[in-house]
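thought: fold this chain, then report.
action: predict
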Amino acid sequence: MLRLSDTLLDACLGDPCALAAGEAERLCGLDHDGASTQLAALKPWLVEQQRLLWARQQESLLIWLQGPDCAGKDGAIRRVFGGLDPQGLTVHGFRQPNAAERAEGFLARYRRRLPAPGEITLFNRTPYEGVACDLFDGFIAAPAIPERLAQLATFEEQLAGRGIRLLKVYLQISRTEQKARLRKRLLDPRKHWKVGAEDLEAHRRFEEREAHWAAILAASQRPQAPWQVIPANHKWLRDLLVASLVAREFERLDQRWPTPPLPFGLDELERA
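observation:
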């Protein structure tokens, strides 16, 4: 088996109520060199599975990546999905909604970017920003959250009905690790574009924000669309866990190359 075992992956289901201190540091019994080697061995298989998905044009895969600032959403996308065929792979990043997006309903911008059959689509930040960050940013009040959670549950059911397989991943880092990564951004001029004034306030309120996210994850933890809470302090572990979760989704599809009737044969080609 190229990917990590079900035992390790199922441990990521965990208890999203906690987002407990120390969980972000978990090593899952792995080490840097072994995990890096395993990811390198798994990548060609993922490439093949993506080609099968594209060739079959039936199901699609939608991956939602969520996590605190500096959790490594961009890095996971580069390291896990880099090298896959750009045809059939799309990444969408969602920043704070603008006035027009707020006016049309919080799910509308996500609905516009759903994958077509055969595609893999990644959302860097998810519709759950509408029940967390919209609250932090003052766009909604707490009484609006239950209704939005109900809309999200309906949305996820609709995705399943359209043959869109949904993988929800929360990248968990510690407050100490977030501070270290913010420091690196401040020290590297090439990363200054990533730093916003709001990052400092979010870091100051790290525990409060994570407690709110824990409650949101718990309220939206359904058997048909569970959250996978990934320890992400160690980038090499984060990447292998995400890649293995994607691999397991592909295994469940049990894909085969399509075998349509050929429009012409070798003899006809030779005579052409």
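thought: worth noting. Strands lie at 60-66, 89-93, 120-124, 164-172, 227-231.
final: tokens above.
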